[in-house]
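Fill in residues.
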């Protein structure tokens, strides 16, 4: 009996030892799967980071208008001291539709980039048709890298305000600001046809105008389809702003200074929410006396917003001066202005980086409704342009925009966008009705 018990114990012990050995080898064999899982997690984080960078870059640095031109198209000759309608063009000015085109481009594989000291006119003149992306102000290839250079590691310092892609070289984009130099970006795929798919469906007719033969502006031809839009409002949580700006910092101090003011600091910088404004202050980056080029200001400020925090709205650069850059909110195809509430982002930089920025603490969230603007609530284009020509000094006019007035209802938590004319006069945007009143009173 004892011998039988010992025999069974031996068998069980051998079984346990064998099982242990098998499990050990299985664990060892499972290690590569663990490594693969780690790679997968890293890749997922990488994709999430790129998704954030892409979304912010699209919201901040998409062009203001995309036009299509044919070599047979003819324009009127611009005349000095007048406002001239040059042509009616096919264009997309709605930022949301422009972003769809840019997203396709930013996902394409780039094969090669190069800078050529040649005129881009030979590219344009050799095409039957071409698309032109136009910006109000210059941007840099470094800050807009993810839009046009994709995964390419190219970080060339190159300033531009126009992009062209033609049907002659369908796999190539050309970035430029004058006719002496351009950056050539070659893709592995036909980029022209990708643009054409979206453009054919979404383009509208715009009048192209020249003011005093100094600058061009575009106004939608069909003004019977101007809509008033309403949105629910979301409050921006400054804790979210802090988590984006103060990376990997767990020693954050949160202070409620009073009923309206909240602060978060990492010991070096401060994020402050007060009323309808969020302010970022970094005293260590402030250095007075050094006047930076517009190119450097745009690059530093845009990279700060793209890699840090940017409200999920569309913006356009409207001014760069004195180490300060201003990004104006854009709704659909027009700039947004508000007499009472913050509707832009201001960033101040020095040689060490951003030392101050302000942005709205609220942004639109869910679209509630759209309805046609009442008849005659928006002046027709001819009436506005005739008034400007007859009553204002054209030298002081630097933009004419059919944009939107933004109204915020703090009780119902709603934002309303109302189509409104704005004139940039003496470097200040003024709505058309106020401009008329100031003109009549001699206040201009």
């Amino acid at each position: 009996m004892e011998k039988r018990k010992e025999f069974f114990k031996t068998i069980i012990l051998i079984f346990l030892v064998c099982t242990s050995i098998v499990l050990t080898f299985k664990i060892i064999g499972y290690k590569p799967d663990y490594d693969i899982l780690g790679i997968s997690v890293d890749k997922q984080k990488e994709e999430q980071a790129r998704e954030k960078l892409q979304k912010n870059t699209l919201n901040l640095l998409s062009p203001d208008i995309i036009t299509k031109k044919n070599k047979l198209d003819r324009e009127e000759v611009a005349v000095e001291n007048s406002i001239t309608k040059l042509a009616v063009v096919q264009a997309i000015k709605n930022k949301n539709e422009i972003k769809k085109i840019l997203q396709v481009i930013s996902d394409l594989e780039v094969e090669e980039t190069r800078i050529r000291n040649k005129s881009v006119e030979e590219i344009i003149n050799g095409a039957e048709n071409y698309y032109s992306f136009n910006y109000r102000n210059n941007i840099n290839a470094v800050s807009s890298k993810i839009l046009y250079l994709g995964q390419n590691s190219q970080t060339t310092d190159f300033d531009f305000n126009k992009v062209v892609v033609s049907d002659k070289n369908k796999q190539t984009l050309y970035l430029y600001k004058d006719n002496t130099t351009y950056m050539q970006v070659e893709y592995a795929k036909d980029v022209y046809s990708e643009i054409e798919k979206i453009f054919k469906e979404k383009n509208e007719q715009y009048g192209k105008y020249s003011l005093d033969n100094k600058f061009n502006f575009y106004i939608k031809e069909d003004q019977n389809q101007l809509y008033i839009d309403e949105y629910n409002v979301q409050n921006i949580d400054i804790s979210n702003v802090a988590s984006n700006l103060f990376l990997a910092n767990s020693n954050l101090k949160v202070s409620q200074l009073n009923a309206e003011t909240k602060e978060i600091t990492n010991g070096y910088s401060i994020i402050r929410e007060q009323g309808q404004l969020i302010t970022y202050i970094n005293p260590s980056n402030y250095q007075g006396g050094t006047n930076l080029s517009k190119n450097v200001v745009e690059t530093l400020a845009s990279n700060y917003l793209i890699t840090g925090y940017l409200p999920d709205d569309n913006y356009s650069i409207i001014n760069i001066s004195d180490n300060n850059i201003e990004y104006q909110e854009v709704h659909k195809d027009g700039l947004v202005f508000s007499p009472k509430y913050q509707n832009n982002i201001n960033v101040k930089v020095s040689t060490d980086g951003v030392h101050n920025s302000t942005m709205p603490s609220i942004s639109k969230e869910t679209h509630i409704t759209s309805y046609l603007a009442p008849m005659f609530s928006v002046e027709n284009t001819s009436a506005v342009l005739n008034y400007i020509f007859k009553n204002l000094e054209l030298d002081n006019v630097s933009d004419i925009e059919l944009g939107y007035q933004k109204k915020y209802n703090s009780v119902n938590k709603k934002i309303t966008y109302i189509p409104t004319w704005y004139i940039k006069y003496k470097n200040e945007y003024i709505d058309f009705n106020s401009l008329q009143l100031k003109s009549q009173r001699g206040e201009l």
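The two ends are 116 Å apart (CA to CA).
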